[in-house]
Design brief:
By secondary structure, the chain is of the alpha/beta class. The protein folds into 2 domains: 4-195 and 385-399, Rossmann fold (3-Layer(aba) Sandwich); 217-377, Rossmann fold (3-Layer(aba) Sandwich). Helices cover 39% and strands 16% of the residues. The chain has helices at residues 19-27, 40-51, 86-106, 124-128, 150-166, 176-184, 231-243, 260-270, 288-294, 312-319, 348-360, 362-375, 377-380, 386-399, and strands spanning 9-13, 54-59, 65-69, 72-76, 111-114, 132-137, 170-172, 192-194, 217-222, 249-254, 276-280, 297-300, 324-326, 340-342. An 8-stranded mixed beta sheet has the order 3-4-2-1-5-6-7-8, sandwiched between helices.
């Protein structure tokens, strides 16, 4: 494929990330400092460079931008939302998908990678035209711990054929998503290539190891501040601890989201702000290293209502040597189980009990911290990365062979 006339043309429908910002760092040989891991778009640029692919990338980022540089065309295109009710939202999503289909056709793409949670069936149109369509799944298709609602059931019926026979291969986080795909297709799906977030060795070298004896015992939440991510449950736990006279546990909330103002107001009303701190968005280049160094445990109390992705904060807890408290609704739990104190989904008292158990049981705390050592290497291994999964898919297409799944 060294002949430019034979260069594969690849189209990538990314999520809402800043693909242009990441590219500007990548072009200088740098990692994007806004995220702790190696950004998926940076891994994509690596692949396109290494395989000499002609590239077109579209992101849903709300800041419209266009970059054309050699083999790369990058576009930020904000998605238009026609209205707030469910019907208009799904119509907006479908129109967005169809526009991506048209973009891919105009670009004359041979390979189409779709990485945003979406109406997958729309991309069956490209498969019908002989395109190699590769869905990259990052979020659950329906709530992992709850019943499948009417909308999810309808989408599953529409998407079933796409995952069963239309797409070339499926890329996915492990655990939840492969299970859902197999359930949707009655076990008759296309091959599945799993991947994990990729981190550079030394990325967390500035983080101090945890000190069990240090007080207060600090519980760190990293993620979107929304009710479905469980932040209001953490506030409820802080209130319970206050009522019980427990004063040596503190909560640090890092992130922003639709519940930020409500969380602040209710924390103020409950009088727990001395031990319940909202820090807003925290970057590795700013105050996140300090908060990680001060923390004893990371917590991911995602509720059954949320379409959870991998939840990288769980991996980041392990990479910094901390235990993690979470439930099976987070797929990351299944690959770092030995470092996790597992709680039943939506069990607020269970999360409170887990915090107290780690605070009071030095032997358990040390056991969970020690378990992180053996679990870290999987996140440093490029063979487990999104880059490698996509390279396997593109190589199989280039060679004209059926891809082999990893699960």
């Amino acid at each position: 494929m060294n002949d430019k006339r034979d260069r594969i043309r690849i189209f990538y429908a990314a999520g809402p990330g800043d693909i242009v910002g990441t590219y500007s760092h990548w072009a200088k040989g740098e990692d994007d400092p806004s995220v702790p891991d190696v950004a998926y778009s940076a891994q994509f640029y690596d692949l396109c460079r290494d395989m000499d692919l002609q590239t077109f990338v579209v992101s849903r980022n709300q800041e419209a931008k266009v970059v054309r540089n050699g083999q790369f065309v990058l576009i930020h295109r904000p998605r238009r939302i026609l209205g707030q009710n469910a019907v208009l939202w799904h119509l907006s999503e479908l129109l967005h998908c169809l526009r991506l289909v048209i973009d891919a056709m105009r670009f004359r793409a041979q390979v189409v990678v779709v990485a945003a949670e979406t109406h997958w069936f729309a991309f069956g149109l490209l498969a019908m035209l002989g395109k190699c369509v590769v869905p990259s799944l990052h979020c659950a298709l329906w709530p992992a711990a709850g019943p499948r609602g009417r909308t999810a059931s309808i989408l599953s019926l529409l998407d079933r054929r796409f995952f069963a026979s239309s797409c070339f291969v499926i890329m996915s986080h492990p655990a939840t998503l492969p299970e859902q795909i197999r359930e949707m297709t009655a076990g008759q799906c296309r091959p599945i290539l799993t991947f994990l977030p990729l981190y550079r060795r030394g990325r967390f070298s500035c983080i101090s190891p945890p000190v069990f004896e240090k007080r207060p015992f600090r519980v760190l939440f990293l993620g979107r501040v929304s009710e479905s991510k469980g932040v209001l449950d953490l506030l409820s736990i802080a209130e319970r601890f206050k009522a019980q006279g427990i004063t040596d546990i503190a909560f640090d909330i890092c992130g922003v989201g639709p519940a930020s103002e409500r969380l602040s107001a209710e924390a103020d009303r409950a009088g727990v702000k001395p031990c319940f701190h909202q820090h807003g968005f925290c970057a590795m280049a700013d105050k996140l290293p300090g908060l990680l160094s001060e923390s004893h445990v990371l917590i991911a109390p995602t509720t059954s209502r949320f379409l959870e992705g991998f939840n990288a904060s769980i991996a980041e807890g392990v990479l910094t040597g901390r235990p993690v408290i979470t439930s099976r609704v987070c797929p990351a739990m299944h690959v770092v189980r030995d470092a996790v104190v597992e709680v039943q989904t939506d069990d607020v008292q269970g999360y409170a009990d887990a915090i107290l158990e780690l605070r009071d049981n030095a032997e358990l705390y040390a056991e969970k911290c020690e378990a992180t050592s053996a679990l870290r290497k999987q996140f440093y291994d490029v063979d487990n990365s999104w880059y490698t999964a996509l390279k396997r898919a593109v190589t199989a297409f280039e060679q004209g062979i059926d891809p082999q799944g990893t699960v």
